[in-house]
Specification:
Elements (H helix, E strand, L loop, with lengths): L1 E6 L2 H16 L3 E6 L10 H7 L6 E2 L7 H19 L3 E5 L3 H12 L3 E5 L11 H12 L2 E4 L2 H9 L7 E3 L3 H13 L4 H4 L6 E5 L3 H4 L2 H18 L2 E5 L2 H9 L7 E4 L4 H9 L3 E4 L2 H9 L4 E3 L7 H5 L3 E3 L4 H13 L13 H10 L2
Parallel strand pairs: 1-2, 1-4, 2-3, 4-5, 5-6, 6-7, 8-9, 8-11, 9-10, 11-12, 12-13
The site of uridine-5'-diphosphate has 17 residues, from helix 1, helix 12 and helix 13.
Length: 355
């Protein structure tokens, strides 16, 4: 069997890496196709290097564009490569524009499509990712769901049971594989951090493309830093960096830094007291690593983290954010993480072998 593994952004590189490693281990023929939706050194090459994966020879070089142009270009280029290389399966992961484009190309080229992290739903149709997920799930031959919850959403939407496989989330594989690489980093020393710090990431358009919303979040974080004596550490996504600069947002009491490599970032999570985020993957990583999370959104496509009480949704309301911090100051942090035992990649490849 010959598989094409399509990636485009930072989280896709990370979450596909255990599958790539498993293919290497088992000598399964595979090509990595990179759209380069993310292309800055610290959103792209750094991750292949950290994760010990050769930088993809098949690089579509699409980079940032308006969504319709980006999706069209990735779809066209993927289609040409898919046909030329006669793949048996195309694998995509998550909900980005790269995923939607490659999924449509696989469908039009009549090649079987596997969707890793299928069935996630925020039920917020203003998110571009929600549309990408729904379409990708609906045309996938293999929906690899991380949990029973995600599988149940697919069943409810009428997707046949024969296409649904609950396999866990490959983020758990990645943490398991890389534990020794981040566990021993002396992160306080490396970044000259106070003992107690909160880690922040933001990149959702609804939070960072709107000046009022971005200012609101930054002001709340700044207040929390003083009120609770937290150092606030904020590795800034390029979308957000651009907006902070262009909107001239003041970031008092907050330590901004460029996006970090994977191991430094996992170590930062692992040693933090609290996480504030709007990221999908970071809600999962916080849950797996036993760190309390405050999600600065009205909804999440990771309801499992709410169910196990590792995550609190606050939206952008300052009172709610403070009340969530109070909760985490006063309540124990123990839960069973719901994202699997770190064997998702193995399960996915074995299912394809029999498919
Ligand atoms: C994309 C995904 C989002 C995912 C996120 C992971 C879509 C619709 N969005 O959002 O689901 O959670 O990646 O981080 O697919 N930029 C750079 N360098 C880069 C990449 C981006 O400077 O390497 C800047 C550009 O100004 C670009 C902006 O960031 O216009 C946004 O990038 P884009 O890939 O469109 O969306 P993300 O916010 O990264
Ligand atoms: N991450 C990283 N460095 C950073 C910020 C995030 O390595 O400075 C990793 C993080 O560990 C997680 C992934 O990037 O695995 C999450 O990516 P992002 O938040 O951009 O996307 P999302 O998960 O929301 O799609």
């Amino acid at each position: 069997m010959k598989i094409a593994i399509v990636v485009g952004t930072r989280p896709e590189i990370i979450k596909m890496s255990p599958i790539i490693k498993y293919c290497e281990l088992k000598n399964i023929k595979h090509d990595i196709i990179h759209s380069q939706q993310h292309y800055s050194e610290n959103m792209d090459k750094l991750f292949f290097k950290d994760l010990g994966i050769e930088y993809p020879k098949i690089n579509l070089g699409v980079k940032s564009k308006k969504p319709h142009a980006q999706i069209a270009e990735i779809m066209k280029k993927c289609g040409e490569i898919f046909i030329k290389n006669c793949y048996d399966f195309i694998l995509v992961q998550g909900d980005t524009n790269t995923v939607l484009a490659a999924a449509l190309a696989a469908n039009k080229c009549k090649i079987k499509l596997g969707h890793v992290e299928a069935g996630l739903r925020s039920f917020d149709y203003s998110m571009p990712e929600e549309i990408n997920r729904i379409i990708t799930d609906s045309i996938s031959d293999f929906c690899f769901c991380p949990t029973e919850t995600s599988a149940s959403y697919l069943r409810k939407s009428g997707i046949s049971d024969s296409k649904i496989f609950v396999v866990g989330n490959t983020i758990a594989d990645s943490i398991k594989i890389n534990l020794d690489k981040f566990k021993y980093i002396e992160i306080h020393k490396k970044f000259s951090l106070d003992k107690r710090y909160a880690l922040v990431t933001l990149h959702r358009p609804s939070n960072v493309d709107d000046k009022e919303n971005l200012e609101k979040i930054i002001q709340s974080l700044s207040l929390i830093s003083k009120k609770y004596n937290y150092e606030i550490v904020f590795p800034v996504h390029p979308r957000t960096k651009k907006n902070i600069k262009e909107m001239n947002i003041k970031t008092h009491n907050i330590r901004l830094m460029d996006p970090l490599g994977y191991f430094d970032f996992l170590s930062l999570i692992n040693n933090s007291s609290l996480i504030f985020t709007d990221s999908g993957g970071i809600q999962e990583e916080a849950c797996i690593l036993g760190k309390p999370c405050v999600t600065l959104r009205e909804n999440t496509e990771r309801p499992e983290t709410i169910d196990v009480c590792s995550n609190i949704l606050t939206g952008l309301n300052e009172e709610q954010i403070i009340s969530a911090v109070n909760y985490w100051e006063n309540n124990p942090q123990n839960w069973q993480q719901p994202f699997g035992d770190g064997t998702s990649s193995q399960k996915i490849i074995n299912i394809l072998k029999h498919g």
